[in-house]
Amino acid sequence: MLCRQHPNSSVSQCNCTGQYCKHQLIQSNESTSKNRPCSNPIPFQPTINCRKQKGNIMNPNVVTRSSAKQSKVRTRAQLAATEAEQEERRVKLYGGYRTTGKGSIAEAKKQGKLKMSANGGDQRRSDGAGGTDVQLRDIFHNAQSVATTARGPTGILYDDRFALHRCLWDANYPECPERYQRVMERFAMVQLVERCQFIAPRVATEAEIRTQHTEEQIRILQQTHGSQDEAALEQLSSKYDAIFIHPSSYETSLLAAGSTVQLVESVCNGTVQNGMAVLRPPGHHAMTAEYNGYCFFNNVAIAAQYALDKLGLRKILIVDWDVHHGQGTQRMFYSDPRVLYFSIHRYEHGTFWPNLRESDFDYVGDGKGTGYNFNVPLNATGMTNGDYLAIWQQLLLPVATEFQPELIIVSAGYDAAFGCPEGCMEITPAFYSHLLSPILSLAQGRVAVVLEGGYCLESLAEGCTHTLKTLLGDPCPRLVEKLEPPCESMQNTILNCIHSHRSYWKCLQFYELYNLEDYNNTNPQDNFHQVVVSYVPPEPPAQPGCYETRNCYPVQSDAERARIHERLQRLQLLTDLSFPATRVCYVYDELMLEHRNSHEKWHPEQPERIAKIMQRLTGDYQLVQRMHRLTGRAATTDELCLVHDPQHVQLIEQVCESSTMKQTAEQYNSIYFHPRTNASARMAAGSVLEVVSEVLNGTARSGLCVVRPPGHHAEPDAPHGFCIFNNVAVAARHALEHHGLRRVLIVDWDVHHGNGTQHIFEQDARVLYVSVHRYDNGAFFPKSTDANYTVVGSGAGEGFNVNIPWNRKGMGDPEYVAAFHQVILPIAYEFDPELVLVSAGFDAAIGDPLGGCRVTPEAYGHFTHWLSALAGGRVVVCLEGGYNVNSISHAMAMCAKALLGDPLPVLGSATGGSRNSITTSTTPGPNASCFETLRNVLSVQQKYWRSLAFNKKLPSTQTLPAVGDATGELVQALDYMTLGQDEPGSSKQSPSSAGTSNDGGQAGSSSSSASSTGQKPAQTLTEFLEANLEALQNEEMFAVIPLKNCPHLRLLQPDTAPATIDTRAPCGDCGAEVENWICLLCYGVYCGRYVQEHMVRHATETVDHPLALSFTDLSVWCYGCDAYVDHPVLHPYKNLVHLDKFREPLVWAYGSDLVLDVVGNDAASGGWSRSSKAD
Questions:
Q1: For residue 44, what are the CA distances in angstroms to 19, 59, 489, 753, 1174?
Q2: From start to end residue, where is composition biased (Low complexity) (predicted)?
Q3: Which of 103, 153, 434, 895 can pair with 197 through a Cys bridge, CB separation 3.0 to 4.6 Å?
Q4: Which are the catalytic amino acids?
Q5: Distance between CA 375 and CA 619 in Å, rounded?
């Protein structure tokens, strides 16, 4: 409570001796009692009622009851009117709820419940099993629900009995006890076990196993328990693919399954925050009625089912990063929308184990589970950290954030790690921290990691170590090797996955579609992604039902193992695992409260902004007890002059000592001065410097700056937009010049563009400035086109300025999440900063009077968590704007909790839940304006950042079914070929797509349009041939009907096609330059049968090279089928020839189906060698 007459005097500081202030009181956000004493009271003057009484004037010190009552009524009325006016003003500017009258939150809840009752009684929202009461909650309820929740311990589960299970007849078998032992040895070396809470393992009950497996499979394994008949055990093992059975296999398999259940239960009931189970045998290949791929019982699937049935969970995310597809887990939840299964695995078009068609991207689930199965098939080896990071940013994180699971289970196989002979991938062990860290903010931190595969003992142990350290809250280490951009094969895979799931997830609506008309009328087509489904069936086994049990795995040479060891040792030595004991330091100084607008009492940039933040951090959230407070200091003139002109610094100092402060302030945009402005602004800038120095000196991991006035609008030579000195810019330049940093990232999420910061660093390549702000096509403050996405920096700084300008109000969590996943995080990781500074304005928060956006406080916590994976966790969050004191205080508390590693609230209502169809969801996803902005940003920034490779259009059709009969029926082919009426490039409906449309019914609209205009229907080829039957019989014309498909098409490898084809190339054998053909397998050029027949010889004498394309007429001949072939998969090859001959793309001639499907139909070997498998 403040005295209106003496606003600088706080009621709590009053030294009154009994008198009461007659001044009107200014009500603060906290409720206060009336008649509070003032520090500068006016003596009480009672109201005197002068009237005559028996001719005498009454004693002036006597107040009658009547006069006192009238005076009290008048006073109360005046106070009520004044308080009502003040309350309206306060709520409008500073947020919060009215404390009295119809506007109270209690009244709103009451009215809401009455309204719901009138509309049909007690409404309930059922979301799976049971219903829950619909309640009206205030906008900060989600944040407040975790106010006092700190991160719990990390659990670890292990048992030396897991080392009993081994192969008796092959000592070199990859799935060996040493896998478990080396992991535990590495944990002990870095003292991780002592930091964890031990979870006692247990054996699974048969009832738990039966939830996913048949009784027969349990009994078969049970009967082997304790058996000493090695030959019988090997014979039984040979009935299953990649299986060995040991006398202890039944015991250890039950122990592995039960321990996984125990870990999941401990995480769900809050015994631990998260945890890791180091166990074997693995489980994700085990199917309902079959052992498979080193797996007997599906540990993760059993535990997930237990959580659904016994723990009441309704949404579980399973992330399977093992390099082999977990087909067992996929099948068990393929129709269950409660489980989102996400698998990243080596596939190579089906040539890699387990060689299943169902492992490809177009297997998306079935029934109610459609859209909840994600396969990310890797069609090449050597995938790097950058490839996997792209999967996370483009697919997993957006979808997982939209799904909002209650529990995350990681099937953690480490066979994609560098050195593993099974995976042949290039993931460095430290990168597993970066894969795990971003998902720890989901599911309120409830994450269970369960060991699956991994067969390079060194990289397995190191990868598990980084995983457990991340679960413990240690910062993600900076990567030793520079991130490579996603390769072309990975780009195709990710876009294929997005195409298959786009209709089920709102976050994937970001990608635009193209139809046949777009395809034929656009040149060039670089931005058009073509979806190709290619599958090579496995070679049939020599002995069906009998599998190899010995020497059935890849073996590395001594030289290869030495090379792997050398690189892993170098990575381990160069990876910095040290970190400060203090997680978060913070700064706050009461001096910054003294800067205020003396001429506009209700100015938005008020002292209460930081006072309220400190109240939240100290009281409601009780966070300051776990953070180290630094003493603030004033920035020196030299420090300010790192980014500001000396004249500007001198001006601020002089104007605050003059009597012309108001007149001077009016010369600038949105600026006020106070005698204490210079001191407060210097304190703000200097305090940020203190936090940055504390972090860079290794005393604290991260920092929080509760400072004002803000800074990001301040220009080098002028104050601007409430900002005096540019606090963050001063800190960034200080880090570069005095701490020797080479790369600093500034993320500015204030709703207003940080024009000052941008201008200061727009020519400096050492500072990457990323701003996401409201722009409204230049109409939103600061109303400059410099805030548009086209402004990218200049000179040496070109490409290091990224603007994400929103062009409408109302942007909320879904839009900001999309901006982080599509733009901010990919660029930030590629930049690889050594320090992250956040210009944390919270005026995009819900309830802010100036921003007009709807970002929740908890969303800011998630943003902070994602950024914390960068720069070794060296993140400093610095307050900028935000003018609803409730919003900014909750938001800053969420950022602090993220830096402390506390579990964060879910983003449920803000981001929306998933549905089987995007049209049935009741909550919004990112809006169209957001997607347009992000596409514009990517179109400009992809020139500078190679990670931004996914801004492409997808075909509007769905994936075609598998190709049918190899020869086809001539009559059927004729019935669907048309002539005459069609314009070149017009769309035709194929038999597979007739009557269907995926783009608003356009595919089926052509016939009705034609009939309405009186046009004659197109003539089919059958009708044309019937009309010209006589000419055919007299051999005056010829008709060649190419095969719709041929079994040799499966040999094609579109990914290996050359970028260009030279149609003027001579024959490779004789040098002929006419009638040449190109082999579509090796791309050799040879002459035709009417020249020297070199193509005939090549195709017949070379194994599996039957397909050739003519340079003359673009026809394709199959020497294996002795026939012409015409199929959509041939279009890319024909297009290359057409481009070279005619300098324009070939018109698509296959109807409305823009998705190519190449599926082999026979079991003949396609020239591939079967890859060996281990889990």
A1: 7, 17, 84, 52, 90
A2: 1004-1015
A3: 153
A4: 285, 713
A5: 47
Angle CA 315–318–321, to nearest 5 = 160
Q: How many CA atoms lie within 13 A of 137 on its CB side?
A: 11
Residues 6 or more apart whose CB falls under 8 angstroms from that of 435 comprise 321, 388, 392
DSSP tag of 1016: P
Residue 430: pLDDT over 80: yes
Please say whether the beta carbons of 1164 and 1106 come within 8 A: no
Per-residue b or e along 331-359, where b marks 16 or more CB atoms closer than 10 Å to that residue's CB: bbbbebbbbbbbbbbbbbbbbbbbbbbeb
Are 1076 and 1114 spatial neighbours (Cβ–Cβ below 8 Å)? no
What are 671's two structure tokens? 């600026």
Residue limits of CATH 3.40.800.20 in the chain: 155-477, 582-907+926-937
- Of 277-291, 552-566, 1019-1033, the poorest mean pLDDT is in 1019-1033
Q: For residues 709 and 700, what is the distance between their CA atoms, to the nearest angstrom?
A: 25
In SS3 terms, 2-59 reads as EECCCCCCEHHHCCCCCCCCCCCEECCCCCCCCCCCCCCCCCCCCCCCCCEECCEECC
- What confidence tens digit (pLDDT) does each residue in 1106-1131 have? 999 999 989 999 999 989 999 888 98
Domain with CATH 3.30.40.10 in the chain: 1049-1142
Determine the Cα–Cα distance for residues 807 and 780; give it in Å rounded to an integer.
9
For 162, counting Cβ atoms within 10 Å of its Cβ (0-12 exposed, 13-18 middle, 19+ buried), the class is buried
CATH number of 1049-1142: 3.30.40.10
Residues near 760 by Cβ (< 8 Å), separated by ≥ 6? 643, 715, 716, 726, 729, 733
Contact call for residues 511 and 954 (beta carbons, < 8 A): yes
Token pair belonging to 52 = 């005559």
Question: Which of 15-29, 98-112, 925-939, 1014-1028 has maximum average pLDDT?
Answer: 925-939
- Location of structure tokens 């901006």: 819
Contacts 24+ apart (CB under 8 A), 595-603: 595/674, 595/676, 595/677, 595/679, 595/680, 595/681, 595/708, 595/709, 596/674, 597/672, 597/674, 598/674, 599/662, 599/672, 600/672, 601/7, 601/26, 602/89, 602/90, 602/93, 603/672
Is 722 in contact with 605 (CB distance < 8 Å)?
yes
Residue 97 has pLDDT above 80, yes or no: no
Q: Superfamily assignment of 155-477 in CATH?
A: Histone deacetylase domain (3.40.800.20)
Q: Give me the pLDDT at residue 1027, please.
A: 64
- Beta bridge partner(s), residue 127: none
- What are the tens digits of pLDDT across the range 782-834? 999 999 999 999 999 999 999 999 999 999 999 999 999 999 999 999 999 99
Tokens of 532: 């190709």
Distance CA 853, CA 752 (A): 11
Strands 1107-1110 and 1076-1079: antiparallel
Question: Which H or E run contains 183?
Answer: helix 177-189
Q: Which amino acid is at 151?
A: R
On whether the CB atoms of residues 1074 and 1092 are closer than 8 A, the answer is no
Q: Does residue 466 register a pLDDT over 50?
A: yes
Mean pLDDT value of segment 877-884 = 97
Residues 6+ apart with CB under 8 A from 1098: 1079, 1084, 1086, 1105
Instruction: Compute the distance between CA of residue 170 and CA of residue 164 in angstroms, rounded to an integer.
Output: 15
How far is it, in rounded angstroms, from Cα 1088 to Cα 1110? 8
Residue 798: partners with Cβ closer than 8 Å, 6 or more residues away: 792, 944
**DSSP per-residue string spanning 444-475:** GG-EEEEE-----HHHHHHHHHHHHHHHTTPP
The partner residues of 610 in beta bridges, in order of sequence, read none
634-655 pLDDT tens trace: 999 999 999 999 999 999 999 9
Q: What residues have CB less than 8 Å from 159, skipping those under 6 apart?
A: 201, 255, 259, 279
Q: Which CATH class is domain 582-907+926-937?
A: alpha beta
Residue 65: its H or E element = helix 65-94
